[in-house]
Amino acid sequence: MSTTAPLTSTVGAIDVTALVSSLMANEAKSLTPLTNAAASYNAQLSAYSSVSSALSTFQTTLAQLNSAAFSAQSATIANSGTGTGITTSAFTATVNSTANISPKSQIIQSAGMDPATTFAAGDSIAIKLGSNTPTFITLSSTTTLSGLVSAINSAQPNVGASIVTDGSGSHLVLQAATSGSANTIQISSNGSLSAFGYNPAAGAPSTMTQTQAPQDQVAAISGNYNIAVTSLAASAKIKSAAFPDGTTTFNNGILAIKTGTGTTTLIQPTNNTLTGIRDAINNSTAGVNATIVDDGTSSHLVLTANNAGATNTITVTGTGDFGSLSTGSWTNSSGTVVPSTMTVQQAPQDAVVIVDGVSITSQSNTITNAINGVTLNLNSVTATNDNYSLAVANNPSGVQSTAQSFVNAYNALIGVLGPLTSFNATTKAAGALQGDSTINTIKNQILNTIIKPVTDGGPLQTLNDVGISVQKDGTLALDTTKLTTATTNSFSAISALFNSPSDGVVTSLNTLLTSMLAPTTGIVAGRTAGIQASLNSNTANQTQMQAQLTADQAMYTAQFNALNVSLTTMQSTQAQLTSELAGLTTS
Question: pTM (2 decimals)?
């Protein structure tokens, strides 16, 4: 920021430029404390930006250190069958991925109904989740299914309501807001709402059915499982009769496609060729993929269901020119009933896997409900001479890798925060946040969260129990020998120590970091706002002082210029008097 304005002077005995410059250089020293303070504020803002970034990076890493990561187990597949061609490729297994151990919330739905169905004013429904107090909802006026959904959601009964529509009509769908086996839904209702009653424990009949069972967080149990794959899930695939290349057009009629129990989709091609039909199908929500296969002389439209499973059949209904694509008989323009020309290329079917003698059916070749914490990915059907086994065992090296990631993430955070509050005795250089109480609070709260005992950790209550300890320099170190002992004696407790929902180390750290990084209420945002306010005040003070310096410079310049004029006049008067006196003397 400039501290002087351009100088002007009147030629005279005094060097106004030099004199005013000297005076202003002295007065400008009053700006130095403000500019130094501004530099400090800017350094602090930059430092807190680094703090925010480091805390965010730490939290991002923690998100990856979930229960699955601290429950690392290995899956080994073996085939002890006899004969030739014995392989171990019939399936693969993934153990304790986030997807297959995550808790699930219960979902139930009603029977299908006309969406215009009305429910009478004054009728009530009571919804209870787990051990919570029931929420009573009484209709204030006659309403439709959509209005019922709005009334339920407005009452906030710990259950979310929505509508799903398929071929059987519209369904009221209720999903528990909280996951876990303890959070089951119970419904009492009367009058026109009676069909929505649901309490399986009471044995009362109900049209509500469970579409997703509640599930606690589950982890795989070490052990051996005998597995056989008797069928793979397959998608329905049908093929049309042959159409001469480039000559067939579809000029009138309607084409509709339905998969499984889904809704019927009307297909509206933008042009009347077989290619136009293919494109219209692929741009629709019919649930199938359309291709054209050319045998050299003719073309065939091939439809494949997007989803596998025995129930996901393909039904095509056509009228007029589209009748030849129907999967059932149809009536042509002459009134003749024509049988379907669509042929089945692949029948839809479910996957069937037998685990320890128990048969499990799935619409997908990815099966997550056969063994807790294990996902089976089916590749082929096993042969009669196969004897597959799956061994699930604890994986200490995987847990060690995860624990080391935790240590590394914390040490990286300390590597950023430490220098900001340090003082170098040799260079006399201080960190930008040395003595800052807020940054010390942040460091202390994080450290206290790390070292505090965990109540739900079972036999493992502190990080020291798994070999993680705080060093003199504030960083963490991992004792792998101690961790190995913990994985041998208390494998399942390691995950609880870090990820217990109540006060696990990672759980608590994530809660703390979310609070610290809150955009307006967090400790980082609050301190940053305070520094910015000080900087803004400093800038205003500098502006005010600069205005005063500019005014002083103008005043000094004017005063010394006026003095120069006076001196010049006096010099002129002196010269005149001297001349006149000299004349008197000579006369």
Answer: 0.62
